Amino acid sequence: QAMEIPGYDEALAIPSEDAARLALRIQQVVGEETNVDKVTDPLGGSYYVESLTAKVEERAMALIEKIEEKGGFVRAWESGYIRSVIETSARKWKEKVNSGKQTVIGVNRYQMDEEQKIPLYKINPETERIQKERDIVYKKERDSKSHEMAMKELEETLSRFKDGDNDHSLIPSMIEAARCGATNGDMATLMKKRLGWVNSAVLVPC
Question: Can you give the pTM of this predicted structure?
């Protein structure tokens, strides 16, 4: 069991040192001041929590069945179904927030008179330059033949996956590609090329 506290600026950029420290301190307060970690499972045996868990499982399985009926995730994505479900859920949540049915501290309750500007983390240009140089050296020194073969196998697996062949998992091919020197950028670019549904905004060529 774990508790994750994201940085307050994580939705906008790489978390700054201050944001990461605050998130860590919140975890430390809960962990070391409340003694909640002294009990293995504080909510164990709670009928209410179990009922909520059952509802989440039931709704999740119903959604998975709908996706399978549409031919699997790739087909459901290409048809626009996945996007529609996400947008509908986001719209309903926004309507609840706007109406006050859903409380979001700082948004519709306990708002500040002035909106606070959050300074975004910026990568040091020198750090970026050094990393780019490392990437160039890394690609020159890796076994190009093994890398090429692994990327070809990954591309074939991606094609089969897109065609609805669910017997071919992407993970083993991606692991093998990584072992043969493929970078995240190599694999993400190939996924965008073969599947088409990877958002190019999240790709980091390297």
Answer: 0.62
Give 152's contacts (C-beta < 8 A, 6+ positions apart): none
Q: Which domain holds residue 24?
A: 1-42
Per-residue pLDDT at 206 exceeds 50: no
81 pLDDT above the threshold of 90? yes
- Res 155 pLDDT > 70: yes
Total residue count of the chain as it appears in this document: 206
Instruction: State how many domains the chain has.
Output: 2
pLDDT digit string, tens, across residues 8-26: 999 899 999 999 999 999 9
d(CA 155, CA 174): 10
Q: Residue 6 contacts by C-beta under 8 Å, 6 or more apart in sequence?
A: 15, 23
Cβ proximity of 79 and 70 under 8 Å: yes
Phi, psi of 109 (to 5 degrees): -145, 145
Q: Are 9 and 19 in contact (CB under 8 A)?
A: yes
Q: Residue 112: inside a domain, yes or no? A: no
Q: 102 with 89: CB under 8 angstroms?
A: no
